[in-house]
Amino acid sequence: LQVFLVEKAGRRSLFLAGLMGMLISAVAMTVGLVLLSQFAWMSYVSMVAIFLFVIFFEVGPGPIPWFIVAELFSQGPRPAAIAIAGFCNWACNFIVGMCFQYIADLCGPYVFVIFAALLLVFFLFAYFKVPETKGKSFEEIAAAFRRKKHLAKAMTELEDLARQQ
């Protein structure tokens, strides 16, 4: 199902939607946990937020990075890039799994604020830096990166000229 959804909606848009949905879910979990002592029904808000968090993860940040990593690199460096991405993925999973209980004890009901802040950073990075790779060859994606690099270099040179005058 995910493969068809990715081909229809596009990698970048699903990734961004998943990150934003996870961010909203993390905020809802925080609100639910903070207000749980005042309103018993907030436990349902927290449960729904947890389910939505998992659903949004499965729509975006779960599978999409594997598509994008495979499409951003040519055949030569692709295995190394996928290995590094896999290592980073599992290392972060391990760190979260090992540290979550300590962080939860330290932060109490505000533990998911940390996740919300990180998700906001990830969303902004993806919005500004991650290209759409749907229907594009590696050469087209590489050319787009080169254009951005040359444009940034040209803008820097123009700024330098403006300062000199």
Describe the largest sheet.
Answer: none
Q: What is the count of DSSP helices, taking H or I runs of 4+ residues? A: 7
Mean pLDDT reading: 86
What's the Cα radius of gyration?
A: 20 Å
Number of strands: 0
**Quaternary state, please?**
single chain
CATH architecture of the largest domain: Up-down Bundle
What are the segments in which pLDDT stays under 50 over at least 5 consecutive residues? none
CATH topology of the largest domain: Growth Hormone, Chain: A
- Number of folding domains? 2
Q: CATH class of the largest domain, anyone?
A: Mainly Alpha
Say which CATH homologous superfamily of the largest domain is assigned: MFS general substrate transporter like domains
Helix and strand succession? HHHHHHH
Principal-axes geometry comes out as globular
How far apart, in Å, are the first and last alpha carbons? 58 Å
Write structural notes for this entry.
- This protein is mainly alpha-helical.
- It has two domains: about 1-135, Growth Hormone, Chain: A (Up-down Bundle); about 135-165.
- It contains seven helices and no strands.
- The protein has helices spanning about 1-10, 10-35, 40-60, 65-70, 80-105, 110-130, 140-165.
- Helix 2 (about 10-35) runs antiparallel to helix 3 and helix 4 (about 65-70) packs antiparallel against helix 5 (about 80-105).
- The longest helix has 30 residues, at about 80-105.
- The chain is globular, with a radius of gyration of 20 Å.
- The N and C termini lie far apart (about 60 Å).
- The mean pLDDT is about 85.
